[in-house]
Amino acid sequence: MAFLCRSAASLLKSSRAAPSVLSAVRHYSPGGQYEYILVEKRGEKSDVGFIQLNRPKALNALCDGLMREVGQALDVFEADGDVGAIVITGSEKAFAAGADIKEMQNRTFQECYGGNFLAHWNKVSTVRKPVIAAVNGFALGGGCELAMMCDIIYAGEKAQFGQPEILLGTIPGAGGTQRLTRAVGKSLAMEMVLTGDRINAQNAQQSGLVSKIYPVDQLVSEAVKCGEKIAANSKLVSAMAKEAVNAAFELTLAEGNRLEKRLFHSTFATEDRKEGMSAFVEKRKASFQDN
Question: Are the CB atoms for 47 and 87 separated by under 8 Å?
Fold first, then answer.
């Protein structure tokens, strides 16, 4: 159990040993070194990583270059010890209207299978820090899949979600059939995948795909506020909590409960657990140090 904590702590603390990477974060201006995304840190304490998809003319279609840049930005925020959560968003018109069809139109089976096409898109789901999707407008195809890779989805009032790949003679290829089914159940997922029909923000919330809905102009700020709440907690323990929740999709109930118990016990090897409980007993605000 203590080993689990030491491993997690080493991952978090290793970020402090990479000054060149951290320097890149601190000096981000909108756009930074990227072509397809805007990257910065937000929040009163600059503890929320912020990634905005930025291909407005293509409704943020997810080309290979954009997804590779998202992966690079996530790596930087993972290595930044000050960042406790990450927000991914698009524009008010489109979170992401899908994959870049022009880019994949002429690919062959050999190219797709041999090159493991889209494999690197899964990067978002492997990040240890909590990731929040702030979805305005269209989240279709790959855009819906990208949102579902995140840990929390907030939606604007006019958001639309869908997996319309069937209308193009193919099927979802970045987790759409799997994550959507786990989120909304078999019947609705099957309907969406087989017809290409969309659901609005209200239906998405009712089905469990989305946790909260906000006015379009308030969505991003509310997502950042959620990120700030998460970042105010122990980053070490947040990583444990995220691991435990995600395990519910992979393990049986008995196996999941065993993992949860081990991680719960492991928190008792951390200074943050001691600080949190002491602060509660002493009726003061906890000051977590992420160790």
Answer: no
